[in-house]
Design brief:
alpha+beta; five-stranded mixed barrel; Jelly Rolls; globular; 10 helices; six-stranded antiparallel β-sheet
């Protein structure tokens, strides 16, 4: 994917975007099934889309690799289609993990892909998909420096010049000067407040940005030396893997890799690590305070998104896009309102929101994982209401898409078409269901829903039965590869 007209002069790189992570500190907006890279920002875009656009300014050799979990494959494809358009989305290739195992395994797998597809000297630029960087020119200049150091045999990381005594980031201590950067003296854990203030005053410390650059060969050599268990698992997963067009499916051995970051696995142990100080703006949107910085402040320091009414309130951050939110006589509050969950916290406790998520996960609460609107490869469904033995959903099927041929043991379904035309298979019968028409599917009956038209299909689904969980589903055929090998034939 080479974009002409770029004023960025540096060695060609292979961008590798890591797309995943839960972003638990941004709950209730970020959840397991729609994590931080995919959540809508106040301007309507998401972080993955912004990362893709930023990569467009880089000179590279025609390929971009997206490494993501299989659960986020279709979310990633949808974002790429929206951000890049039809002219460039076909230049992106996908490397799919069967299970999330942190950044060391993901990056090792990407290096194996690059070694096989581009060559061992390929320079990889590894980018998290959840960073916000507006200064494209400054970013491009830093990448050029990092790529040149990578060609000299360094494993390169990026360090952000700190602007405050931040306790939520790891730090990097700079050592001897290099052309374009510095030798890394040491990596430092997230500090307490007093230590962070000392780092800020010292001048030689940088925030660890989590962006990396190295050749495929050098990364794999370092991985073999410092993290052999990761290296062996990813080698086996690559050997077991299968390719299908632009998509590479890693084998099940990937799940045996240790769950460890690239920092711990390699960067902190290797003897040839460099850091490029980043003068560009950088925001990892790690918590709600950082999200608030994207919003304009009023005269009292309040920042908000949505229809808001402030009365005698100061220094609050409010995210409430769905309905009017009024604050009266309060200060230093964080308020996040979504259709199914409300968070109210002291503003200085935004780093602790993950503790709420941990408690929800501990009790297996569904709101740790899903929104009331759930994205699927074929479209979305929204739970409108549910009670004992019934659930009502709004289903949207994108044009030319179709759900799997499936069956439910414990529930029946009634579909009413609101707009568009549905192609419905029930048992051995197939028919078109038009707007304001309906159909019924009895429990135990194989069925399929398809949108044959060019506009979205919207319908209301009424479920009834003794059990209405999403896991009551047997798929017989599925164009998205979600059928288990042992699935029966209807």
């Amino acid at each position: 994917m080479h974009f002409s007209g770029s004023d960025c002069h540096s060695p060609q790189v292979v961008p590798v975007i890591l797309s995943g992570g839960t972003g638990s500190r941004l709950w209730p907006l970020s959840r397991t099934q729609q994590p931080k890279p995919f959540i809508p920002l106040p301007d309507g875009e998401n972080l993955l889309g912004k990362t893709l656009k930023r990569v467009q300014a880089l000179p590279h050799g025609g390929r971009l690799l997206m490494v993501t979990n299989r659960d986020y494959y279709f979310l990633s494809r949808d974002t790429i289609a929206s951000a890049l358009g039809a002219d460039h989305e076909d230049r992106v290739e996908y490397l799919l993990e069967p299970k999330a195992r942190n950044t060391a395994a993901a990056i090792a797998a990407a290096a194996l892909w690059a070694q096989d597809q581009v060559g061992p000297e390929a320079v990889l630029l590894v980018l998290p998909s959840d960073h916000l960087i507006e200064d494209a020119a400054g970013f491009c200049a830093a990448v050029g420096k990092a790529a040149r150091l990578a060609q000299q045999g360094y494993l390169v990381t990026f360090g952000v010049v700190p602007s405050r005594p931040e306790t939520g980031y790891g730090y990097i201590a700079q050592g001897a000067a290099l052309e374009g950067g510095f030798v890394v003296d040491r990596f430092l854990e997230k500090p307490n407040r007093e230590t962070a203030e000392a780092y800020l005053a010292g001048g030689q410390y940088l925030w660890n940005a989590g962006i990396f650059c190295f050749t495929a060969k050098n990364l794999l050599q370092a991985m073999s030396e410092h993290a052999p268990a990761v290296h062996e698992a990813t080698l086996a997963a690559w050997a077991q893997g299968q390719a299908n067009g632009d998509t590479w499916w890693l084998g099940k051995a990937f799940s045996q890799s240790p769950d460890i970051s690239i920092d711990y696995a390699v960067m902190e142990s290797h003897d040839r690590v460099a850091v490029v100080p980043a003068t560009f703006d950088w925001n990892d949107l790690g918590a709600w305070e950082a999200m608030g910085e994207l919003l304009p402040a009023d005269s009292e320091g309040n920042r908000g998104h949505g229809e808001l009414l402030w009365e005698d309130s100061r220094q609050c951050v409010v995210y409430s896009p769905e309905r009017l939110t009024a604050l009266l006589g309060v200060e230093d509050l964080l308020v996040v309102d979504t259709p199914d969950a409300l968070l109210i916290a002291r503003r200085d406790r935004d780093q602790d929101v993950k503790r709420i998520v941990e408690r929800l996960k501990g009790s297996s609460h569904p709101l740790a994982d899903t929104h009331i609107t759930v994205h699927r490869p074929w479209g979305t469904y929204t739970v409108l209401e549910e009670g004992e033995h019934f659930k009502i959903k709004r289903i949207l099927v994108k044009p030319r898409e179709k759900l799997s041929l499936q069956m439910h043991y414990h529930r029946s379904e009634h579909w009413i078409v609101v707009s568009g035309t549905a192609k419905v298979v029930v048992g051995k019968d197939e028919r078109l269901v038009m707007t304001n028409e309906s159909t019924f599917i009895a429990a135990g009956t194989a069925h399929r829903l398809e949108n044959p038209g060019v506009i979205p299909l919207v319908l209301i689904e009424v479920q009834s039965g003794a059990y209405l969980g999403e896991d009551d589903i047997v798929r017989f055929e599925d164009i998205y590869g979600r059928v288990e090998a042992s699935a029966p034939t209807p």
